[in-house]
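pasting for the record
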Amino acid sequence: MFEGKTVIAYSIGFYYEAVKEAVKRLFKIDYLCDKKWDDSDIDSYDGIPIIRRKELGSLTDFVLVVFTCNEPLKQELIKEFSGKGYEYSFAMDLLGARTVTGKEIREEGQDGVCKIGTNTVYYDETLPDNVTIRFTGFNGEVVIGSNLATENLCLILGNTGKCTIGNNVRLIGLTANVAGATFSIGDDCLFAHDTEARTHDSHFIFDKTTHKRINYPKDVIIGPQVWVAAGARLLPGANIGAGSIVGANAVTSSQFGDHVIIAGNPAKVIRENIIWSKDNSQYADWDCFEQCISDDALKY
């Protein structure tokens, strides 16, 4: 990548600090450049020499790698660099920060594997067209089993996030924000509409006295044959046991055992020793489990 060119990292701030180590594994950065250094006498930062913006015009055969996740700034820089004839790339694009659909994954992948920059999707050929995966960081991984059915599934993968979806899962409406930890759904699960899961809080929280962080990412693990009802929110650390039900609008970051119903905010166990069937009660009025056509619960 960029063989024979001078590589200049441009716009050195939060996003640079967040992803620099991943980028440095892809290629060597020769210089750093940022308008905040135009009138300073600093000659290096992060162990890398600094070049001023006014000096760029005297260089030949160089490429700017821009470190920003701010869309308006990206558009502004595209206009500026294009006008000056500078070659440029965005670090987030090189890392694979891209949104893909199930259809695109199947078209671009091979033998069940699709590489998107530093991110990877492992998929079954039954992957639906309307799955949406938004990679916003690096080294994300998604594993999707067979016979997934969904009306609206959006997976948002930040840095080092991992998402695993088992076989025969139905996700009517789920948005999952995954970074720094794992979100896992077992086989035969059902998610109703407007459900959400997240392994991180999107922003940092610190203790006011010590300034130490208190909200690190945590895995969210959903066992097999779990029914997550409409409006439920599964927060960092949530763990739902096999055969259980998460009630409508329940909110939890806690751990629960097998074959229970949890409900409320914060959610708690309201019933134990249950099994459930995917048979739809708007079409039938069964009195016992043996009448059900869908008997997945017996496996768990």
